[in-house]
Amino acid sequence: MENEHLTRSAGGETKSFLLSARETQCAPTGDWRTWLFMGGRGAGKTRAGAEWVRLSALFGGCRRIALVGPTFSDVREVMIEGESGLRRIARADETAPVYEVSRHRLVWPNGAAAYAFSAEDPDSLRGPQFDAAWCDEIAAWKEGGAVWDMLQMALRLGPAPRIVATTTPKPVPLIRQLAADPTVAMTRAKTGENAANLSSAFLAHVERVYGGTTLGRQEMDGELLDNVEGALWTRAQLREARSLAPPGQMSDIIVAVDPPASVGASADACGIIAAGRCRPPGGQVMACILADTTVRGLSPLDWARRVVETARMVGARRVIAEANQGGEMVRSILLSAGCDVPVILQHARISKRARALPVAALYEQGRVFHLGDFKALEDEMLTFGTSAMRGSPDRVDALVWALDALVVEPPFSPSIRRLDWMAGD
Questions:
Q1: In which band, very low, low, confident or very high, does the pLDDT at 237 lie, cut at 50, 70 and 90?
Q2: Strand 34-39 to 64-69 pairing
Q3: Cα(first)–Cα(last) distance of the chain, in Å?
Q4: Is 195 in the same domain as 244?
Q5: 8-12, 221-225, 299-303: which has the highest mean pLDDT?
Q6: Strand 252-258 to strand 98-100: parallel, antiparallel, or no bridges (unpaired)?
Q7: 322 and 244 together in one domain
Q8: Is the Cα torsion angle 16, 18, 19, 25 positive or negative in sign?
Q9: Does residue 32 form part of some domain?
Q10: 246 and 187 in one domain?
């Protein structure tokens, strides 16, 4: 059941913020598990999150609360010690919670505690358990999806664990996932709505410089934009790519690989994309994305085995591999893994974006279709080369190598191969 004191009133001095707060800063009513507050810079998101945690700790019965920010520094400097942080919003008749640096723990006099976590380390959330959480600037989390998943597993105390997520929106996968979830309670706020607490000179400046721009809509109006400024691909292009009917024959099929430069859990992924070349009767040469079997955290021999498995699954005639990092060693690893088709090594001599431009043009021309819903690949495509991109675009790199070899560059001698594996034969 909804705790009324966490939404509308709490009695005595604790009412002060909720009486002066805008409606968007008050937790929604209803039976929600996640409250997503998306707003512009200075829209009052941090204060809303901090007040919700304060009331949860003092009056809501929450004993263990997770505080998750982009880094440990962000948690302490913004969520705890900042102008609207948990220690600064204590009422005059309250004892402010104490931050124990060595334990990354904030403790209230009643024994309730909030624990700080960095979104840079998803595994740090594996052991603890909580009955509430405040996640700040989730659009800036480097490992957003992984951290969010680990936090869900940790919210297992109390009758109804809840999360408040406050952020300036960016079209990253985690934000799009939450915004599309009908069970997530969502509020929005513009920077200008909090004008009473902001510098008038600041507001005048940003409105003059950024008013009406894409950046202004995102950073000041708190809009979740469908397409990222500067991105080479749009959602409309990818929807069209999924809607095209695949032909029954491929004149060439390859697997492209973007090998990681290192090994281990923190290494980049090994991008693995299978694609085919076709020409519908009377039409232009087209390309079909057949599979994305990208993997992360495997040894060189293991990711090479995944490449071999993918090549056999789709009937590839050859493997294209970027060799800037490993050189001939990449070929040797693939051969050791049992690769029985030619391995063509490619060396990148121009920037990633420059290599991707001709491939993006193929999508714009409607000459690429996706045989399936490749969500992770498409997420990378939509942020590739922009400030919203997180990590290395390993899937996109492999995609570019594949389509460059099949369509942009003159193809190898064609060999008709019917896609029997698509029908499960």
A1: confident
A2: unpaired
A3: 53
A4: no
A5: 299-303
A6: unpaired
A7: yes
A8: positive
A9: yes
A10: no
The enclosing domain of 329 has a CATH number of 3.30.420.280
What type of residue sits at position 297? Answer: G
Q: How many independent structural domains does the chain possess?
A: 2
| Host domain of residue 105 | 4-219
Compute how many other C-beta atoms are within 10 angstroms of the C-beta atom of residue 164. 24
Q: Does residue 102 form part of some domain?
A: yes
Q: What digits encode the pLDDT tens for the residues 81-122?
A: 999 999 999 888 888 999 999 899 999 999 999 999 999 999
The CA radius of gyration of the chain, in Å to the nearest whole number, is: 25
With both helix axes pointing from N to C terminus, report the angle between 235-243 and 352-364 in degrees, rounded to the nearest 10: 60
Q: What is the 3-state secondary structure (H, E, C) of the chain?
A: CCCHHHCCCCCHHHHHHHHHCCHHHCCCCCCCCEEEEEECCCCCHHHHHHHHHHHHHHCCCCCEEEEEECCHHHHHHHHHCCCCCCCCCCCCCCCCCEEEHHHCEEECCCCCEEEEEECCCHHHHCCCCECEEEEECHHHCCCHHHHHHHHHHHECCCCCCEEEEEECCCCCHHHHHHHCCCCCEEEEECHHHHHHHCCHHHHHHHHHHHCCCHHHHHHCCCCCCCCCCCCCCCHHHHHHHHHCCCCCEECEEEEEEECCCCCCCCCCCEEEEEEEEECCCCCCCEEEEEEECCECCCCHHHHHHHHHHHHHHHCCCEEEEECCCCCHHHHHHHHHCCCCCCEEEECCCCCHHHHHHHHHHHHHCCCEEECCCCHHHHHHHHHCCCCCCCCCCHHHHHHHHHHHHHHHCCCCCCCCEECHHHHCC
Is the CB of residue 368 less than 8 Å from the CB of residue 287? yes
Contact by Cβ (8 Å): 309, 289:
no
Alpha carbon distance 24, 308 (integer Å): 53
